[in-house]
Design a protein that fits this description.
11 strands, mainly beta, 123 residues, 7-stranded mixed sheet, 4-stranded antiparallel sheet, 0% helix
Length: 123
């Protein structure tokens, strides 16, 4: 089991950058692939990016490729999401979650979720 806490969200303008943090507690952090999933008002959750336990393999949704970077520091139980060139359509609650079974690209594959952090991008 793993407990996840997100931070780093905020209100920014289009074109700005933000760095999100996902900090885990518990002894099994390195046993999990971790994903960042977002949910905008009135929309379904969508996976933004995911990273393997070792950090060697990564997944990005098409709509963030070239703008967002996922990374992890296993010595500090933290996963990062660097977000550049933010757009108003990136406005959402961003969650980090530990992958259980299934495709990284599907929110249903993630078993343990944090409480989320709000990202708001103004135009």
């Amino acid at each position: 089991q793993v407990h996840l806490v997100e931070s780093g969200g905020g209100l920014v303008q289009a074109g700005d950058s933000l760095r999100l943090f996902c900090t885990a507690s518990g002894p099994f952090f390195t046993a999990y692939d971790i994903g960042w999933i977002r949910q905008a008002p009135g929309k379904d959750r969508e996976v933004v990016a995911a990273i393997s336990r070792s950090g060697n393999n990564k997944y990005y949704a098409e709509f963030v490729k070239g703008r967002f970077t996922i990374s992890r520091d296993n010595s500090n139980n933290t996963v990062f999401l660097e977000m550049n060139m933010l757009k108003p359509e990136d406005t959402a609650v961003y969650y980090c979650a530990a992958q259980g079974q299934g495709s990284w690209a599907q929110p249903i594959a993630y078993g343990y979720w944090g409480q989320g952090t709000q990202v708001t991008v103004s135009s």
